[in-house]
Amino acid sequence: MSLAETIRARFEATAHIPAPLSGDGMIHGEGVPVPAAVLAAIVDRPEPGLLLTRRNEALRTHAGQIAFAGGRADPGDSGPVDTALREAWEEIAMPRDAVTVIGCDAQYLTISHFAIVPVVGIVPPDLSLMPLEREVADIFEVPLSHVLDPANHRRIAGEYRGATRHYYEIVWQDRRIWGATAAMIVNLSRRLRG
Question: Is residue 147 over pLDDT 80?
Answer without folding.
Answer: yes
